[in-house]
Design brief:
alpha+beta, 20% strand, six-stranded mixed β-sheet
Length: 443
């Protein structure tokens, strides 16, 4: 169903007055419009196609064939209808799918990109399951730098005493925040699991229950928005930037993934419990294609800073059993829970694109029978760096990849890489403090 009239009983039951029609953009940010429930007469909802050309800084990539800034139709996915718990008036939100005015799905839509990959799996009677883990920092606002922040409690001189990996003190100190976060997630049917203190001061991780990829991408999308709202209400800001501080741990969005057949059997394991050939090909696909798709896992200049330190951040695409130095970790598990953890994506990713990218690589590996390298038992940091070192390399690799175009289509490849290029140019226009402070008087 895509007509909000079909949800009239639900809207009436929850006494909803307004509905947010949301489109996730290229950055994974919510765009859209607010529709009064009193005006839900059957009609088409429209927004500009240029939403998908909008950069994270508010600039635009506008292709030559859209100089008129055409409209698109947005159709509510009523399976995503939920209450907005922080709204001052009774409000619901619903995610929308995007179509051109002739009724064709828009290839530029990140949500459609993931749906397209899932259709490839469905054609093989394969059913992927994912479980994201999202890391983030809670920061105190810096009054001298609007919009900026500093690491939670980092004004203490001895920063080491604030670093308490997997401890309880900081979680307990923020008990009211996490209680409200849990309450808001329950209201929105976001199935979050454990929360833990991570390596950085004020850095935490939330685990999500495993499930269907599109549903989990929706939940991560809503979780990020919810956490920002809750943090703001408690005088903090939540940051998902991949490397907020060069001296502290980066933030990742790890994706656990497995694939089941129509009989609900995990195809990654043989009947004797060993790794299946499909599992090895899936790993081989991740190793063969993830570098070409790195832009989907590291979408900003800052993303590549995370790969420059050994704070549990990968520097290559090796794999190992329960080895957190590798980009691809295979946890110890029973055969029915056999899975691989992709540790490459930063927390700054668009969840739809990161999940689509990792599943696309695995699909290509299984269908093309990609070989896998031997596992790493020791530190993968001793293996050569094998990723792109900056975003321009990633943009070129993404644009030039036949595999990327095969899975996602030319329209998406052109739009996404062009948006990232506009953002990168904007970044290059800023002269860093180090250059001004050191090189200005030295050279």
């Amino acid at each position: 169903m895509s007509d909000l009239k079909d949800a009239s009983d639900w809207l009436e039951q929850h006494e909803i007055e307004y509905v947010e029609l949301i489109v996730p953009d290229m950055a994974g940010m919510p765009r859209g419009k607010v529709q009064p429930v009193s005006d839900l007469s059957p009609k088409k909802f429209k927004l500009p196609v240029s939403i998908f050309g909008q950069t994270v800084t508010g600039d635009y990539y506008m292709p030559d064939d859209n100089v008129a800034d055409r409209d698109m139709e947005i159709r509510p996915d009523l399976d995503t209808l939920r209450v907005v718990p922080w709204a001052t008036r009774p409000t619901a939100s619903v995610l929308t799918d995007c179509f051109d005015l002739q009724g064709k799905a828009l290839c530029e839509s990140p949500r459609y990109v993931l749906q397209k990959v899932l259709a490839h799996y469905a054609a093989e009677d394969w059913h992927p399951v994912v479980a994201p883990e999202v890391e983030y920092y809670l920061a105190k606002a810096d009054p001298d730098a609007p919009g900026a922040g500093r690491v939670f409690d980092s004004e203490h001189e001895d920063i080491e005493e604030l670093v308490d990996p997997y401890g309880f003190d900081k979680v307990n100190d923020l008990g009211e925040l996490f209680e409200q976060l849990t309450e808001y997630c329950e209201i929105q049917n976001i199935k979050i699991g454990a929360v833990s203190q991570e390596l950085g001061p004020g850095q935490f991780e939330i685990n999500f229950d495993h499930g269907e990829p599109l549903k989990l991408a929706d939940e991560v999308f809503h979780f990020k928005r919810t956490l920002k709202r809750v943090a703001q209400a408690h005088g903090l800001c939540a940051s998902f930037i991949a490397k907020p501080d060069p001296e502290q741990a980066g933030s990742a969005l790890h994706i656990h993934q497995s694939v089941y057949n129509g009989k609900q059997e995990n195809i990654f394991a043989n009947k004797d419990g060993g790794n299946s050939a499909l599992f090895e090909h899936y790993l081989g696909g991740l190793q063969a294609y993830m570098r070409e798709m790195l832009l989907m896992f590291a979408p900003y200049e800052n993303s590549y800073r995370r790969f420059l330190s050994h704070f549990s951040s990968p520097i290559n695409l090796e794999w190992g059993i329960d080895n957190r130095t590798t980009g691809l970790r295979v946890p110890e598990s029973e055969a029915k829970a056999r899975r691989v953890e992709n540790r490459l994506p930063g927390s700054d990713v668009n969840p739809y694109l990161a999940i689509a990218g990792t599943l696309a690589c695995g699909y290509l590996g299984m269908t093309k029978q990609s070989p896998v390298r031997d596992p790493i038992a020791e530190s993968a940091y001793d293996v050569s760096f094998a990723l792109y070192r900056h975003i321009y390399e990633a943009i070129d690799g993404f644009r030039g990849s036949e595999a990327v175009r095969e899975m996602f289509g030319d329209e998406f490849v052109t739009t996404f890489s062009s948006v990232k290029e506009v953002e990168a140019r904007e970044f290059q226009r800023r002269v860093p403090e180090w250059e001004r402070g050191f090189m200005l008087t030295t050279l």
